[in-house]
Design brief:
CATH superfamily of the largest domain: DNA methylase specificity domains
CATH topology of the largest domain: Adenine-n6-DNA-methyltransferase TaqI, Chain A, domain 2
Number of helices: 9
Number of domains: 2
Strand content: 15-25%
Helix content: 25-40%
CATH architecture of the largest domain: Alpha-Beta Complex
CATH class of the largest domain: Alpha Beta
């Protein structure tokens, strides 16, 4: 495959950053929406902001392809909004006689470009990238007709991936709707069940602190938020940290360890992700970052999981408006008001969840296969 320099067929333009005192939360004559990375990544949750349109304002159209330049979003490809854009974003300006926009879009998402940016971003002296960093970057030199063919192939697989993700989302929404149908909205008084603090019906806590010096290369897996998030999605994980069997046994005898049916809940950063312990293998977990609810005979795990997801979601909204450091504490979790629902009704809901999960397994398998195909095609066409 032949290659040419990316900068020979595409220009790049950084954004502008007017003083904050010139920004407005309401649209005005002569003002334009100011786009930041979060406007693309957080959707409707973002409150739009506007700036005065001047001859130095950098403008993008909805079909332009933009690249996040800094921080955790480095390399994220953004599109779909029009307005001014700030200095954390770079706009691509392809020569459309030589380079199809959608072909450029897929190239920028490909590992060859993303890995290049990661290497640039990891430099100690610089947190992001600029136009000069891209001068030697290469892109496949193929005709526009061939570019269109590649785009058509990738779009078909990407459309399939999106459809499968939507199916999973609809099944999740179905379970939530079934929960409300059976038990009512957990955030609204319904009078059907008595209300009690979670801490009065279940043991809520965390874990014995494990210090970094106690990590070993093999032994009992040690889970952090990262692993719990993946397990909650039904994904496999690659264990990175371990503690010795002797240390694990010592902790178990003195403090106990998670049992099948317990809930582990992410409490810092990514808050409110819940995994029901499956009991397939021994493990221990990081204190503070993860909370543990030891489920008693009062609760069916699937019922309690879905109830707490709703309660914690409301708790997160409350936190976001009043604190700089967001975390779910043991005390806050214990105080959450839950309904004391008859066990038979909880079992009925759990059976519904089990049937739904069977459908999800098949869809998730198809999704993994489609994603692998997409990744291999990206590698084939862009290197």
């Amino acid at each position: 495959m032949d290659y040419i320099k990316l900068c020979d067929v595409c220009d790049f333009q950084g954004g502008s950053q007017p003083p904050k005192d010139e920004w407005s939360f309401t649209p005005k004559d002569g003002y334009v929406r100011m786009l930041q990375i979060r406007d693309f990544t957080q959707g409707e949750r973002v409150i739009p902001e506007y700036i005065k349109l001047t001859n130095t304002t950098k403008i993008c159209e909805a079909d332009d392809i933009l690249i996040a330049r800094y921080g955790a979003s480095l390399g994220k490809i953004l599109t779909g909004l029009s307005g001014a854009y700030n200095v954390a974003i770079m706009r691509t300006i392809p020569n459309t006689e030589l380079l199809e926009k959608k072909y450029l879009y897929y190239y920028l998402k490909a590992p060859v470009f993303q890995n290049f940016l990661l290497r640039i971003g990891n430099r100690a002296a610089q947190a992001g990238f600029n136009k000069n960093d891209l001068q030697e970057l290469l892109i496949p030199c193929v005709s526009r007709e061939r570019q269109k063919e590649v785009v058509c192939i990738l779009e078909k697989v990407e459309t399939l991936i999106c459809a499968l993700k939507q199916q999973l989302q609809k099944l999740d929404e179905l379970v939530k709707a079934r929960f409300v149908e059976m038990f009512g909205d957990p955030l609204t008084e319904n009078g059907r069940y008595s209300k009690v603090p979670l801490g009065s019906l279940a043991e809520v806590g965390s874990s014995k602190r494990i210090f970094e010096k106690e990590y070993v290369s093999e032994g009992i897996p040690f889970y952090r938020t990262k692993e719990i998030v993946e397990l909650s999605k039904g994904n496999g994980i690659t264990t990175e940290l371990f503690i010795t069997k002797e240390r694990y046994d010592e902790i178990c005898s003195e403090y106990g360890a998670p049992q099948k049916g317990d809930l582990l809940i992410s409490a810092v950063g990514t808050i409110g992700v819940i995994w029901i312990v499956d009991g397939k293998n021994d493990f221990y977990f990081k204190d503070g970052n993860l909370l543990r609810v030891s489920v008693t005979e009062k609760f069916v795990p699937e019922y309690l999981k879905h109830l707490l997801e709703a309660l914690i979601s409301a708790y997160k909204l409350e936190m976001s408006s009043g604190t700089a450091y967001a975390a779910l504490t043991i005390s806050a979790l214990k105080k959450m008001i839950v309904y004391d629902v008859p066990h038979a009704e909880q079992e009925q809901f759990a059976a519904f969840v089990e049937q739904t999960d069977k459908s999800k397994v098949a869809i998730q398998k198809a999704l993994v296969e489609a994603q692998l195909l997409f990744d291999s095609l990206m590698q084939k066409h862009f290197g």
